[in-house]
Design brief:
Helix content is about 80%, strand content about 0%. The protein is mainly alpha-helical. The protein has one domain. Helix 6 packs parallel to helix 8. It is globular and about 55 Å long.
């Protein structure tokens, strides 16, 4: 019992700064939604579409960079500190290559908006938002390398501090570019993207300035070795692990993206209600995500030190803690749902659209916490391919496919209470439950193999 408490305490001490940093990051989206909802419903709908596409691109690409977490974590656990700098430098090159791909996708994103059958005005605003966000993508990916480094060595407070600084700048810059002032026109929804781009580059400069100046990083040899070109052997190794990770993130996020695209056919009000609900769900997701990061980091360090039993105990301590806290938060959200929605918008029509959807985000918290924590533990073992297949089958098949059949009811067989956004949310919740069950079963297999054959 004392061992369980010790592991839980270690996870919590590492997770809380990650949680605050992630909440600061997600608060940017909350601020965007709240401020744009007071500008116009059309701009809020454009923001919903633009964010859905941008987040799909960003999360997918940054997911590839997550290969740095177990790689650096295992090196740190094995006390191979001088090798960490090499991985970081190659990670920065990888971030550059990924940002080139992502910028091209964002610039030519109007094709996706045509598929959404959005109105011309809605498509125009969403397109402008995406093309401005393309300017932020290289900076945000570069910062993710810094975040991966600090998390992997157990120093997430530095990341948290920079993210809090970025959050402090968000409201004044949003107000300036959304509503206009000092001769700057009111951009509405796309004004959020301008503010985001400015903040992203500031955060990038601060983070790597600290790496160069702080004594903490000198033993890692990140700077001081001169120019280092990309080494394709290292890039290939990171991609072999990172691409399945990125695909799993991409699959998870595009499940929400395609939900928004399909729901857009139902009108701006339905999209706005979905956007508020999805935004709250994203905020709630930060707790299990932070615990998953902390658990995966400590498991990777234990694996690097060849402490297989300890890695197993840390993993289950993190999964239990994440599940317990998510159930408690789901209960609170259910009883406070009306007040939460009113904090986003005073519009009674949008409130009525969002209120029924909170049933699903209140009760799928358990499934979400189980799947994300288990997935991060598997990544600590450098296992990502099988989980990605599970995500694809469950989220795209059961989640999105089932949601389409229920929400849009093309065959006229679904209950009327599940028509619209509610059907998509039910399908998504069911798919997360399936993912959680499959990943936990697979983790048990992996741990048995690791314990019997650690080599």
């Amino acid at each position: 019992m004392s061992g369980i408490r010790s592991h839980t305490s270690r996870i919590a001490s590492l997770a809380w700064p990650i949680l605050i940093g992630q909440l600061a990051l997600i608060a940017n989206g909350v601020i965007d939604t709240a401020m744009v909802s007071r500008f116009s419903a059309m701009d809020l709908a454009a923001l919903a579409l633009g964010v859905s596409i941008y987040v799909s691109v960003f999360i997918g690409l940054s997911g590839v960079l997550q290969a740095l977490l177990p790689t650096i974590g295992q090196l740190f656990g094995a006390k191979k500190l001088s090798a960490i700098g090499h991985e970081v430098k190659q990670g920065l090159w990888l971030a550059f290559f990924l940002s080139c791909v992502g910028c091209v996708v964002l610039i030519f994103a109007p094709a996706l908006l045509t598929f959404a059958q959005a109105s011309p005005e809605l498509a125009e605003k969403a397109t402008l938002y995406l093309r401005i966000e393309a300017l932020a993508l290289p900076a945000t990916l570069g910062f993710r390398v810094y975040a991966a480094l600090n998390t992997a060595i157990g120093r997430p407070k530095m990341v948290m501090a920079i993210q809090l600084i970025g959050l402090a700048l968000k409201i004044p810059l949003n107000a300036l570019f959304i509503f206009g002032a000092f001769g700057i026109p009111a951009f509405g929804g796309p004004g959020c993207a301008i503010a985001t781009s400015l903040i992203a580059w500031l955060m990038l400069l601060c983070s790597w300035g600290l790496v160069r100046a702080a004594p903490l990083y000198r033993q890692l040899h990140v700077f001081g070795g001169g120019f280092v070109k990309p080494l394709w052997a290292t890039q290939r190794r990171l991609l072999i692990l990172g691409i399945p990770m990125g695909l799993s993130y991409f699959i998870e996020v595009t499940a929400f993206t395609l939900m928004a695209i399909f729901i857009a056919r139902l009108g701006a009000t339905a999209v706005a209600g979905h956007q508020i609900t999805a935004n709250v769900g994203s905020v709630l997701y930060m707790l299990p995500l932070s615990l998953a990061n902390a658990t995966g980091t400590l498991v990777a360090q234990a694996i690097g030190a060849r402490q297989w039993d300890q890695a197993k105990h840390i993993a289950w301590a993190g999964i239990r803690l994440s599940a317990l806290l998510s159930v408690l938060i789901g209960i609170v959200v259910w009883f406070a749902r009306a007040d939460i929605i009113r904090a986003y918008t005073p519009d009674p029509v949008i409130i009525a659209a969002a209120l029924p959807l909170f049933l699903y985000i209140a009760f799928y918290q358990l499934f979400d916490s189980l799947q994300v924590t288990t997935a991060f533990v598997l990544r600590a073992y450098k296992i990502a391919v099988i989980p990605t297949v599970i995500y694809a089958v469950a989220l795209w098949g059961l989640g999105l496919g089932g949601g389409y059949l229920l929400g849009l009811d093309p065959f006229g067989m679904a209950p009327s209470v599940l028509h619209g956004a509610a059907g998509f949310w039910l399908g998504n919740a069911a798919s997360l439950g399936l993912v959680a069950i499959c990943l936990i079963w697979y983790l048990r297999m992996v741990q048995r193999r690791a314990g019997s054959s650690p080599g």
